[in-house]
From TrEMBL:
Coarse class of the protein's main subcellular location: membrane
Highest rank taxon of the organism: Eukaryota
Topology term for the membrane: Single-pass type I membrane protein
Record domain PSI: where: 1-54
Keyword Cytoplasm annotated: no
GO biological process, any: protein import into nucleus
Protein name as annotated: PTTG protein
Gene that this sequence comes from: Pttg1ip_1
Record key words, sorted: Glycoprotein, Membrane, Signal, Transmembrane, Transmembrane helix
Length: 143
């Protein structure tokens, strides 16, 4: 079907989407669907046209590479930005968590110290009651 359009125009050849136009030889041929790119012995990439006459395969490959590379770079930059934001949040949250932990530890120590003081006071009071010691003002002041 495609061979009928050989030595005619590119537009007539490419009306059928299964056809490939080779500009250097003026041949219209079946596109080799088993291969992504047409082999060099069939038609040179600079001369091969498929889909539209104004874009050759060489320009198409270069354009697709540039677009694909740009997309990959944009995705990479976005991923890096997201990771940096997360790490900055973790760094800024870190001292707050450490401060909270330190405050809890201080409160625990303060509570334990008060409990010890209360125990010591109750022991001293018990000893005083046991031995009947009368506390003078100077002794009370020392305690």
């Amino acid at each position: 079907d495609c061979h009928q359009h050989t030595n005619r125009s590119c537009e007539e050849c490419l009306k059928n989407v299964t056809c490939l136009w080779c500009a250097s030889s003026g041949k219209c041929m079946e596109y080799p669907v088993r291969r992504v790119l047409p082999p060099a012995d069939l038609c040179d990439l600079r001369s091969a046209r498929w889909g539209v006459c104004w874009v050759n395969f060489e320009a198409l490959i270069i354009a697709m590479s540039v677009v694909g590379g740009t997309i990959l770079m944009v995705l990479g930059v976005c991923c890096c930005c997201c990771c940096c934001k997360k790490s900055k949040k973790q760094v800024s949250e870190g001292p707050d968590k450490d401060d909270e932990r330190a405050a809890r530890e201080r409160e625990k120590r303060r509570v334990r110290q008060e409990e010890r003081r209360a125990e010591m006071k109750s022991r001293h009071d018990e000893i005083r009651r046991k031995y009947g010691t009368v506390l003078t003002r100077t002794t009370q002041a020392k305690l």
